[in-house]
Amino acid sequence: MAASSSAAHDQHNLPNPYSAAATTAAPPPTPSAQPNHSHNHHHHLTASASMAADTLSRLLTRLPPSLSLPARLRPSPPSSAAAPAAAPPIPPPIITLSDSNATELVLSAASEHGFFQLAGHGIAPRLADSAESESLALFELPDDRKEMQFPRNWPLGFEPEEEDRNGESFWLDDSATTELTSLSSLRELTHALEKVGLEVVEMLARGVGFENPFKGSVMVLSESETTSGGETPSGGGFYPYVVGLQYQIRRQKKYLLPGSGSDWVTVLPEVESVLVTVGDIGQVWSNGKLKKVRGRAVPCLEELGNDKKRSNLGSKRNISMTLLLTLPLESTIAPLVSEKEEEDDEKRSGGSMKFRSIEMEDYAWRVYHEPFLFKDPLDRYRF
Length: 383
Fold this sequence. Notes:
- The chain contains nine helices and 13 strands.
- It has helices at about 40-60, 100-110, 125-140, 145-150, 175-180, 185-210, 280-285, 340-350, 360-370; strands at about 95, 115-120, 155-160, 170, 215-225, 245, 255, 265, 275-280, 300, 320-325, 330-335, 360.
- A hairpin with an 8-residue loop joins strand 7 (about 255) and strand 8.
- InterPro entries: DIOX_N (IPR026992), IPNS-like_sf (IPR027443).
- This is Non-haem dioxygenase N-terminal domain-containing protein.
């Protein structure tokens, strides 16, 4: 979109593709911590606390999306979840897209693990290197330039570093990279990853038995500080997605938090592969047939040291580029399996639908602002 004046030339307002985000206030998280009282009043106070939390949640739904709860009211992730147990990394299942049985292999890996790596995807290493250089340049900009060129219009825009987050992040839709010529390689990588992601979603849709209703994507550039002692940086907020994709530029371990548990898994994807994780939307669409990874893959940075070839081209910053295939905020998330699949599944497992319908805007706001390491955010929506 052309600028209307020279003064506005450097300011690129990101049009929000999620029309409801600009007008509808999404509810912030419901505080979960309740005060401890004597044993004799436990049952009475538990019910009262639940009613009070529900009332507070309804009152706070009137907050605009640009506001959030003060930091003192937002609990920090527990230290036990921030330090995954030391274990040898496992290689994610590797699948070549050109294989004749690729659909079966993708479905098997997604059902058993919730993640896998792809070869034969057609993305050139040189493109990923160039996109990373462009992304690093964004983080080197002064803060006022970051905020001017990428104004916050949740979930899009520049997210500054906060006390309960680890590093800055940029949340970009296609219009953001299109308007800035300096991000041409990042835009090309985004489109290439989106093409691969669409192919994966189509395979999952065919394998599970639902129509593919995919709508759009968000590129997340997140910064993580070098860690020690096994700590895992969060690298920004958690956002719902169908599948997430990361191109592996260098040999580097990744932390994943699969399923509903609290145990981290360390994986070591091959260089030049694409690491794919199934998100919460994908699990709900499949009615629980697919496993998921909670949040994005987190780089293990302590092993990089000062190796310039392995630490973002020698920069002091360590960033990751993750493409999330996701939905507009006005969407409703619900199982999409066909009636026949539902009947067959009911006969096999003795049950039908595993999840209630979920309003995307409410869910996205909740999981973005609440620490997701405490428990699976989908638990409240299960039957």
